[in-house]
Amino acid sequence: MIHYFRLIKFSHTIFSLPFAVVGFLFAIDKQYKIEWHTALFILLALIAARTAAMAFNRWADKVYDAKNPRTSKREIPAGNVKPLQAMLLTIVSAAVFVFLSALINELCLILSPVALLVIIGYSYTKRFTFLSHLILGIGLAIAPAATFIAVSNTFDVGLLFLCFGVLFWVAGFDIIYALQDIEFDKQEKLHSIPSKLGYKRSLQLAALFHLISILLMFHFGFIVYGDFIALLGIILFSLMIIYQHINVRLHGLKAINLSFGTMNGVASLFFGAAYLLDFFLF
Questions:
Q1: What's the pLDDT score for residue 12?
Q2: In the 8-state DSSP scheme, what is residue 258?
Q3: Distance (Å, rounded) from C-alpha 37 to C-alpha 95?
Q4: What is the distance between the alpha carbons of residues 57 and 213, in angstroms, rounded to a whole number?
Q5: pTM for this model (two decimals)
Q6: Helix 83-104 and helix 36-60: axis angle, to 10°?
Q7: pLDDT bucket at 272, cuts 50 / 70 / 90
Q8: Contact 134/96 with Cβ under 8 angstroms?
């Protein structure tokens, strides 16, 4: 079982879950009612969608992962999980996601194939476009919109500021993460912003994306939904992103894993935890 958790990087659920929580709280704050069992369906649907996306990604990239020294010890290249098992996990998780979407509401059911197309289709984007980082961003940006729709069976345009904030945050840190594979991507004719723009210009673009993200997050907190504690969370989120760039510029590639995993995870936790406190205290 441990190999399956490693296959889907279950710990990385932390990236999107806090923003999904904010979408959920935003809907509740607008006086939409929800039953406890529907809240459980929403949580399970989020886990199922992410499991399907990660299992498919590992299946789709198995040949490249085996060639790349950085990824050669992942579960499929290492032989701990068979490709067929990863594909079966994808199919079952996707089916569970659609089933749970149907239990939540009709709009969620209608949109569930679109969500799956984005989060699963991302795995092939590096084959033909260097904009794959933005597609990944869209995949995680769906989370707050999905939870709002799940509660309300409608959508609020103000939520777009949060969704686009997540999109540019994810795209920015994924560009930084991809700096590790510049030479491998060129060798295998895979497309990425670092392989196209080079190290320095990619860092500059990631910084621009993160600046846009921070501005959008503050707009959401100030104008759309948030109070004092929520804004404090956005400040802490922003400081973690800024520190991430300082750390990578000072220490280079050896700082990337820390920046990608720890700093971004902590940043999203600050964001989500502040909104939870804001919701229960005000």
A1: 66
A2: I
A3: 19
A4: 25
A5: 0.95
A6: 150
A7: very high
A8: no
What is the average pLDDT across 155-170? 97
Q: Which two tokens stand for residue 194?
A: 């670092």
Do the beta carbons of residue 268 and residue 15 sit within 8 Å? Answer: yes
Average pLDDT, whole number, for the chain? 93
Min mean pLDDT across 76-85, 106-115, 116-125, 243-252 is at: 243-252
Q: How far apart are CA 179 and CA 198, in angstroms?
A: 8
Which 8-state DSSP code applies to residue 224? I
pLDDT of the residue at 259: 61
Sequence-distant contacts of 176-183: CB under 8 A, at least 24 apart: 176/202, 176/203, 176/206, 176/244, 176/248, 176/256, 176/259, 176/260, 177/256, 177/260, 178/133, 178/202, 179/203, 179/253, 179/256, 180/70, 180/253, 180/256, 181/68, 181/70
Q: Which two tokens stand for residue 201?
A: 């210009």
**What distance in Å separates the CA atoms of residue 114 and residue 132, rounded to the nearest whole number?**
17
Contact 51, 93 (CB under 8 A): yes
CB 179 within 8 A of CB 194: yes
**129 φ, ψ (degrees, to nearest 5):** -150, 140
**Rama region for 198: left / alpha / beta (φ>0; ψ in -120 to 50; rest):** left
With a cut of 90, say whether residue 189 has pLDDT above it.
yes
Contact 193, 178 (CB under 8 A): yes
Judged against a pLDDT cut of 80, whether residue 207 lies above it is answered with yes
Q: Structure tokens of 166?
A: 């997540």
- Cβ(22)–Cβ(271) under 8 Å? yes
One-letter identity of residue 136: L
Cα–chain-centroid distance for residue 155? 20
Tokens 């809240």, residue?
Answer: 39
